[in-house]
Amino acid sequence: MTNGIVNKFSKDVLMYLILKLPIKSILRFKSISKSLYNLMQSSTFINLHLNHTTCTKHEIILFKRSIKEGHNEFRSIMSFLSSYHDNDDFYHVSPDLDVPHLTSTTSCIFHRFIGPCRGLILLTDKVETVLFNPATRNYRLLQPSPYDSPLGFHRSINGVAFGFDSISNDYKIIRLAEVRGEPPFYCYTVVQWRVEIYELSIDSWRDVNHGDLPLPYVHWYPCAELFYKGASHWFGNGRSIEMLAFDVSTETFRNIKMPHTCHSKDRKCYALVVLNEYLTLVCYPYPGCKIDPAIDFMEIWAMKEYGVIESWTNIHIIPPLVIESPLAVWRNHILFLQSISGHLISCDLNSHEVKELDLDGWPESLRVTIFTEGLTLISKEIQHNSTQLQ
Length: 390
Known about the structure:
The structure is a single chain. The chain has helices at 2-7, 11-19, 23-29, 34-41, 43-56, 380-383, and strands at 59-68, 74-83, 90-98, 112-117, 120-124, 129-133, 138-141, 153-165, 170-181, 192-199, 204-208, 217-218, 225-228, 231-237, 241-247, 252-257, 268-275, 278-285, 298-303, 312-318, 325-330, 334-338, 343-348, 354-360, 367-372, 387-388. A hairpin with an 8-residue loop joins β19 and β20. 32% of the residues are buried. 12% of the residues lie in helices and 45% in strands. It contains 6 helices and 26 strands. By secondary structure, the chain is mainly beta. The protein starts with a helix and ends with a strand. Among the domains are: 9-49; 57-268 and 362-370, Neuraminidase.
């Protein structure tokens, strides 16, 4: 009977009707008939749904926290939150989930959420890399990078990025690896950088020659990486404080100068966010420093014309706050922060009102990303091996 009703509608009409449904209903529709399943697995439908959810701006907050459960054991939990209108009365849109595969020790403070990028989020702790669709709850533990350091050298991952190559129509993960000599040959002046790229379509890593451009030391802070306008951006220290950008299509680097007030002795840390569709820099006092209320303001700079250094504009000055780090921007005016003690804080950029929310975890372990639900597949080659989170 269901097939008969479905067959009465054209493919275009069916797509239009199904796109209006909540994603949980769409997932249930897959089991009604083979024709509906094939329709909703098609790249055409997935892209239409992605565009539809992006336009409607139905955003969900993915909040991660870690809880100590033993001497050196931690449980890391992801919560899916939303709110009514613009208030801070958050409710859970679905059950909590454990973070899959990542470390359960004090290294939980190194967990990163990277993305979202077209419906997918990357979870990583520098060792394991997990690709995750928060809407379908499918995830995939990616194979480790095959590259290692030669004998007598130490290799560390300083930067990770996740983006979409619109030319090859593929997702890419970028890792910046630093190779130094181990003691007694340790030397800060001798550094070899390696750039490793994973391509989802072929499920494989490769090493990339980054040319003669000296790469800055990029930081592993929350919000220290951002995919924007086809390029991954990191905040880093090189010959000066600067931003490093990597175009995922051309696989080339370039440096972007920071606002003129940013320098190496300003006792500041930096976070990268998108605010009102601009590449935005949040400058905040270094955690642990004694706050001077006369000078330690939080500054927010927006690059009004991407790539034009002179277009950096100071759009917000926030009274001094004792925080660990910024985490995300929600609805273009709520800045989420984590306190030194591990509480989630919201700061209204318009009114400067600060609230401590009823969400907390182990200090430094909080992470937040804002996403719209999508049906993006984790590629056909990998999908049959991916695990369905319950």
